[in-house]
Amino acid sequence: MNEQIRVSHYGATFGKKTILKDLSFSLAGNQLTVVLGENGAGKTTLIKAILQAALVKSKGKPVQTIQVQAKRLAYVPQFRDLGADYPLSIQSFVGLGIRDHGLPWLTKKEKAAVSDALRRLDLAEIADLPLAKASGGQKQRAYIAQALAKKPDLLILDEPSSALDGKHAAFLVEQIRQVQQDFQMGVLWISHDTSWVRKTADSFLWLHDQTVTMGAAKDLPKEADSKHREEVLHVF
């Protein structure tokens, strides 16, 4: 498989505290990789560094600590608030994710992509609902549908099931896995919940003790299982 992300001797500090130290790993594209670790282990720090590297044009510059090969990148943050007076419907909001610039109206192909994203995230029946009136879980699924509509080759999700109930969390895992396989995209999924990882994911990145352990999802060590049970949905 083609290499999509390469990290070479990456480190991160917060003040005088070392968060991550000398991380080196590579991830192939076309895989679902789950990023695990307790609070403060550096999951979000690493993801932000990967996002920043993806946005930097490497042509004519020295080799970077983090290199990302992705033409279309989509990112769904953990927390997002568009306000109580946001005017667009769920369908219109999802359509905003199709392209970064160009004409304000969508082509037939792009409209089909929006409809497909709405269907996959169980939003088709409420597509005309103003996003501001949607529940927290519906909003979260709309954010993910917007990311999927652009058909990225790398999708990064920061704890996307945190606002969902158990039923929709399980549904989301299944749908993201299906989309990943259908479109052969790379997916990086930050999660506190390890209960579904061994069965569904391809690989894992476990951040602990300032370093990283990685491998096939089926071989996830028991030591990596979630300790904060109150934060875990246990979708399976």
From TrEMBL:
InterPro entries: AAA+_ATPase (IPR003593), ABC_transporter-like_ATP-bd (IPR003439), Metal_Ion_Import_ABC (IPR050153), P-loop_NTPase (IPR027417)
Cited Pfam families: ABC_tran
Record-annotated ABC transporter domain positions: 5-234
GO molecular-function term, one example from the UniProt record: ATP binding
Keywords: ATP-binding, Nucleotide-binding, Transport
Family, as annotated: Belongs to the ABC transporter superfamily.
Annotated protein name in UniProt: ATP-binding cassette domain-containing protein
